[in-house]
């Protein structure tokens, strides 16, 4: 597939969708957190690290993003502008929204479940809004897309497999696990798949523009 050459104006036009996706992801993460039914797998992992450090949830998310970008780079995934911005801004938005006190934990089970489901659905659409602009997947989704392309397996299977792995590590580190965690493990993959289907996005068909392409270090194919 021939990559699209983008100038500065083209990139700037895609920023609203990119940052809307980042904001949605922060909202979705905090919604699952405050449902108090168990955190999402990545947040179980992040909170496991928070428990053993002085970092905030947002800061740990940023540090994990750096680590994933480095690892996947050596596996052949060159980060895009969106990848780097994702790494920083989702964590920033998480901490800012949490400081605003927008989310509170409901007292009864039905609102808790509703908040959990809301968070799962929002995270699915978050992936769609920032992946569709083609500026590079976020660290976690970049890893997901790499495995989808290399294995030919569906998004939901790859996503669920990744999240099951980080869940186990997070639980060992002492991160909070509950029934909501189990629901999220199986729900997030289908949520992403649903958003992709409704929005008409396919990770197998869209090739993201990475930093090397933008900087013109190599010729366009």
Automatic annotation (TrEMBL):
Signal peptide range in chain numbering: none
A matching Pfam family: DUF6198
Segments passing through the bilayer: 12-35, 55-77, 84-103, 109-133
Keyword Transmembrane: yes
Keyword Chloroplast: no
Keywords of the record: Membrane, Transmembrane, Transmembrane helix
Matching PANTHER family: INTEGRAL MEMBRANE PROTEIN, INTEGRAL MEMBRANE PROTEIN-RELATED
Protein name: Uncharacterized protein
Organism expressing this protein natively: Peptoclostridium acidaminophilum DSM 3953
